[in-house]
Every structure is written in C-alpha cells, then in structure tokens.
Amino acid sequence: MITVYRAVVEILTAIRYQRGFDLYISEDGVSFNSVFLDGLNNQHNYGGRILFVDSKNDLYIGTANPFEGCEVWRTDDIPQNALKACKENHYKELWEYRELISENFKLINENMPVILELLSKNTYLKSL
32-47: per-residue pLDDT in tens? Predict the structure, then answer.
C-alpha cells in the first residue's frame, strides 16, 4: 500500500497539485480564466459548494472544509487583473502527466480493491 501511496504522491507532485479548490470564469463557455486556484487562500477548502447571485448582483460562494468548518464568501466584483489564463503549454503538460499516470496505472489498478475499501471506511463514499 505504501508503494501505491508513493505513486499517487509522485503524480500529484509532478502536476504541482495545489490544495484547495479552483474557480474559473468564462465569457463564452469555451475560454476560461482562473479566479483563484487555492481554495480562497485556504488549502483545507477542498470544494466550492454553492454559487449564488443575489438581487444586488453579489456572488456568494460556500466552501467545503472538514477541518475548520465551512466558509461563506461574498464579492460584488472580480477585477480583470485578478484573472489568470491557463498556461500556454497546458496540453503538452497533460500528455506528460498522462505518461506518468500510465507508468503507475498497473500498480494502482492491482491495488484498487484495497484502495476502495479504505476509502469507503474513511470518506463519504458510503453515501454514494
């Protein structure tokens, strides 16, 4: 199991996986820019759960955070200078990550029953 864990950590390290959830914005539904990539400056905010716009055009975002509790954020503006475009070499990196995942696939696949058993004991998978 330690070998599987090392393989997963190697993959996440290679792709520079950041903790915390990401939020993207799009004008046309095709091109996207990131608003933030770090869980609203909190690595334990692993999910954005509710996006709501009120009658004043304020955006509310609820977070999922099992360690410190949920947060609710509000904004009435997302400045253009805060938006970050995806990297130009994004697709090249995806192919590199695909190769890394392929190299570790057999190991992870062979241990999938154990992984799923551990996850079902420790996470929300019981409710699925």
Answer: 888 888 888 888 888 9
